[in-house]
Predict the structure.
Amino acid sequence: MELKLQHAVIRVTSIDAAREFYLNKLGLELLEDSGNFFAAKAGAVRFSFFAGYEKPEVSEDPKTGVSLIFRVDDLENYSKELKLKGILPLGDVIDIPNFHKFLEYEDPDGNVFFLAEYHKEPV
């Protein structure tokens, strides 16, 4: 069983500032842009940036705005393997036609990660 980092989701407080930083300053390659969302390529990894992240107050439990997406060849079988290890998804499979289907999980610290089976190459 091998995991490969394929796709990362980054929620940001300002999509314009993120676009400026990641595209213009870091030089990532633009893949898609629809206003409150853009995707960029970094090597073989796709980064999807979404507006709407709110930084927590200092007194709140801090959480990151980043979620990892691990590519798997067979989502059903992989999720069964995780279930046997006591790792359960947070919900049902979500299928985005012509892109990917995925399950959402949390690590022991509450950080979200996804297992995704892609219908087409994301980058």
Notes: The domain at 4-118 is CATH 3.10.180.10 (2,3-Dihydroxybiphenyl 1,2-Dioxygenase; domain 1). The CA atoms of residues 2 and 72 lie 8 Å apart. The mean pLDDT is 87.
